[in-house]
Amino acid sequence: MKLIRHGQPGLEKPAVLDAEGRARDVSALVPDFNPETIASPAFAQLLSSKAEDYPLAPQGQRLGAPIAGTRLIVAVGLNYADHAAEASMALPAEPALFMKSVHSICGPNDATLLPPQAEKLDWEAELGIIIGRVTSHVSEAEALSYVLGYCVVNDVSERSYQLERGGTWDKGKSCDTFTPVGPWLVTPDETGDAGTLDIWCKVNGETMQQGSTAKMVFGPAALISYISQFFTLHPGDLITTGTPAGVGFGKKPQRFLRVDDVVTLGIAGLGSQRQVVVEKR
Ligand code: ZN
User: How would DSSP label each residue in 158-176?
Assistant: First the structure.
């Protein structure tokens, strides 16, 4: 099933997409998709029903992130060998984890706000994993049963904040609008093996990233199991699994985003995003 939230920021309503890609309003059954409701019997009922069971919603509305109220974003650094090489960094022996502020989450097609004094705004197309239930000390074999669904994430990064201002990476990863999520949350029955999907990113129509999630050093099951050995994941938490080669920071010469640049990115079966860069005021 493909889940969306649509409407103006803060007023999004939950819907599912039918076979023809039309939004169907499910708000009478599940008032929103958030950490509380996705653990509810009504949500289980939704997942076992058909999109066509629900009334058509107004089409073509703005999309929000497909889940509200995410309380934790765990990001994985250097999880593709070709990206580690372009960044001139060694491949980590164990997954490299960092955190992004949940306040950086926005809709998949919302503008990316260029922060003041930002000089090195960059893109990172990534596979996102949304957790469906409490996940603690799970094995790799069990790990995928804790997944609610998969989505596209742009791990927007400001490289000077990330790498030249001291401390951890989080400062360059957490600005407002730095985590577009969606368009859809796609449940695992429909995704198939999320570890074998084509992933791409373009800037102003020019291909920058073209890869496959098959090239991840640590795949979805390994990451969920690994993270759960250190801290507990809860429903609605987002893991963003790292980016393939082709980011602006890795290009020769380096290339960073400017006002009016248009970033498009997507993953096969999970849909695509489009962001225009605008100055933050
Ligand atoms: Zn990333």
Answer: EHHHHHSSSS-GGGGT-ST
